[in-house]
Amino acid sequence: xxxxxxxxxxxxxxxxxxxxxxxxxxxxxxxxxxxxxxxxxxxxxxxxxxxxxxxxxxxxxxxxxxxxxxxxxxxxxxxxxxxxxxxxxxxxxxxxxxxxxxxxxxxxxxxxxxxxxxxxxxxxxxxxxxxxxxxxxxxxxx
Length: 142
Hints:
This protein is an all-alpha fold. It has a domain at 33-129. 77% of the residues lie in helices and 0% in strands. The chain contains four helices and no strands. It has helices spanning 2-57, 69-81, 84-103, 110-129. α1 packs antiparallel against α2 (69-81) and α1 runs parallel beside α3 (84-103). The protein is rod-shaped. 20% of the residues are buried. The model is unreliable at 136-142 (pLDDT under 50).
């Protein structure tokens, strides 16, 4: 009987170690996902804001040879670490941003399309990360 107890104990110890390793992998994935989502939103908003400032001032804007490169790079990280839903919305968002940058002066509604898709992406990211839709404030009665 001691051999059975020893084997059972060894199995439990192995199982706990495996669960601990999985928890570490899950935490690492969460951090990569959070970072990918945050950087995608920041890059997308940053490029749209730069373009908007110049678009509203009716100035020429040199965005470089490939202004979307950084946004596309961030979308690739969402593809790698994000959920399928978030990855699809990231693709829609950068495509809408590209249309706005290329045709925004002629079609004013394109910035709205981009913002709607980006808002949907943000909502999906919040859901994926378990962030409440609106921050709750707890107050103590005193």
